[in-house]
Design goal:
Two copies of one chain form a homodimer.
Chain A lengths: L1 E12 L3 E13 L4 E5 L6 H8 L7 E6 L2 E2 L8 H8 E4 L11 H11 L4 H14 L15 H13 L5 E5 L7 H16 L3 E5 L3 H4 L4 E6 L2 E6 L5
Parallel strand pairs in A: 3-8, 3-9, 6-7, 7-8
Antiparallel strand pairs in A: 1-2, 1-4, 4-5, 9-10
The complex binds adenosine-5'-triphosphate (ATP) (2 copies) and magnesium ion (2 copies).
Chain lengths: 228, 228
Amino acid sequence: ILRARGLVKRYPMGTDNCVNALRGVDLDLRRGGFLALMGPSGSGKSTLLNVVGTLDQPSEGRLWLDGRELTKEPNSRLPDIRRRLIGFIFQGFNLIPSLNALENVVLPLRYEGSPKSEARRRGTELLEMVGLGDRFHHLPTELSGGEQQRVAIARALVMKPALILADEPTGELDSTSSRLIMELLSGLNQQGQSLILVTHDPTTAAYAERIVRMRDGLIVDEEGPAEV
Amino acid sequence: ILRARGLVKRYPMGTDNCVNALRGVDLDLRRGGFLALMGPSGSGKSTLLNVVGTLDQPSEGRLWLDGRELTKEPNSRLPDIRRRLIGFIFQGFNLIPSLNALENVVLPLRYEGSPKSEARRRGTELLEMVGLGDRFHHLPTELSGGEQQRVAIARALVMKPALILADEPTGELDSTSSRLIMELLSGLNQQGQSLILVTHDPTTAAYAERIVRMRDGLIVDEEGPAEV
Ligand SMILES: Nc1ncnc2c1ncn2[C@@H]1O[C@H](COP(=O)(O)OP(=O)(O)OP(=O)(O)O)[C@@H](O)[C@H]1O
Ligand SMILES: Nc1ncnc2c1ncn2[C@@H]1O[C@H](COP(=O)(O)OP(=O)(O)OP(=O)(O)O)[C@@H](O)[C@H]1O
Ligand SMILES: [Mg+2]
Ligand SMILES: [Mg+2]
């Protein structure tokens, strides 16, 4: 479902300085695959996820999603492709502060014109699945850190996207909530959901079928979870 | 340095609903103490830290910091007391988006009227201690998640406060960066720094001399790290 070749991402800083966030990354994910991406802080994991998820343009390299070469698509078409195919769980959560938990979760559905009752039914189901059945009406500021993270997870799942890109989905969660979320994602994967998950937690990474490690903008290691 | 008795925090939700975030919490920390606070998502850890740190007023209960009863102080005096005595590391980091890493770190010093050169020297030293020596001039949006978290840590340390309250300071950090931060905090504690640290990571909690566990707004367990 995903193929990336030679991804480079440079961030110019001033006139003669540059951060080489990605220095030539190749990545493959089969349909229904489950990959965990690990590496030190600043190694390029979020950058790779953002480029793969079309939220950021690579400085060099090519990217294919669902058979289509995204690096050849005009930028104007990317938001559409992204909304249909990709569910993003952001490292910083990115909830809309003026909307409550349920409204945040159903936002993609309402955007598509889904009827209010159907959106409410689907959003409620997902909030219950992440253990927030009694927090629908809370605003993000009225939720704990881990609760905000779980709302973001529910939102990414609401459209049943072809590919889920999760950036540290259990970063703020205790072991019980982490297990709840990972069982949920693992269950979806068993039903065919493709998943790339960034994590620094080996317990979370162990749910994946492959672990890819980064360092300084490069992939330096690849293994199956049995070898962790 | 800290004493809390009977802390209750209720959040009214609508006319007949209420979240009981804290249901009667007692807490003690000796000068130079190091306490880790653990518990499930939503159990009240951040709320307890915010109340202890005077960022939030308890619905009931009493609080003493450095010998002074804060629950008897007029609200107008609290920001002053807080700025002098407490260094906060927030779960969501709370950096100022328009200021770069160095400016964010030295903000408390500049607020106090510290000369620019002295602030710069102190801020640079702290950024280097958290491994961000080459990221001074980056804005928060130009930093990775873990880098933003480390800037927030450096900022909390810049005033050498009597008490540091850290809410999940390693939540977005890989094991190497976590160890760097915990060695730094542990080192400060050995020099007399008082610390309360919320975490869901047992490795991080193991640096503390006591671990307090919460569940549903109450403290349910207390132990020394040897018993983890
Ligand atoms: N402003 C608010 N209004 C209503 N409810 C709130 C508010 N802030 C927090 N809560 C609720 O209070 C409970 C405790 O929140 P708190 O942030 O202290 O949890 P926590 O232990 O820090 O959780 P986490 O590990 O997920 O960060 C949560 O269930 C949350 O939904
Ligand atoms: N907009 C930007 N401008 C300049 N540099 C950037 C920008 N965004 C990220 N960087 C730098 O690129 C590097 C990679 O960032 P990235 O967010 O991908 O790291 P990461 O692996 O996700 O780290 P973490 O585990 O801390 O979240 C970092 O060192 C960061 O400072
Ligand atoms: Mg990241
Ligand atoms: Mg919290």
